[in-house]
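We now fix the convention by which a protein and its fold are recorded. The integers have meaning only within a learned vocabulary of local backbone shapes. A complete example follows; check for yourself that the lines match position by position.
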Amino acid sequence: MEQYFAGDTRTMQERMLAGDLYIADDPNLAADNIRGMELADRYGRTWLAGRGEAKQILADLLGSIGEDTEIRPPLYVDYGKYIRIGARTFINFNFTALDVAAITIGDDVQIGPNVQLLTPTHPVEPGPRRDKLEAAQPITIGDNVWIGGGAMILPGVSVGENSVIGAGSVVTRNVPANVVAVGNPARVIRSL
């Protein structure tokens, strides 16, 4: 393990947020991860019973959340605190946001059920993978984007404002503003 971090005095969290290799099962990261999963679980259990309490749990979980934003549970996160969501955004059931790097979602975004935003990356080489190393790249979703159900947005991707991602699409590279992108891998099929 030493060969990966020789001379680097940063914490695993600092390495993770910088997009560098880090140890995925680091004890400090594991504690933050458990906190995020517990809050997400609590949010799901209180959502129907008490909207006020659920809203407070969501505020505690996420880095920031805009006014009049709704997230239907269940919600799955790595940490939660690296997710920022704008105002008037709607996120449907079974949203998975693996926020090992920052995830930024703009205002007026519509996200269908079973959508995944996946920031983690893993080494291709077997040795570092066996040593439980990973890295991450941020994801940015612009204002007024619609992401159809079951779509996956992969590490390092930005989706430009007003764009539409078709249901079931796998977005492997940046999508410009004002387009429709569909497929696996997602490709722009028209301008808006």
Summary: Residues 27-46 form the longest helix (20 residues).
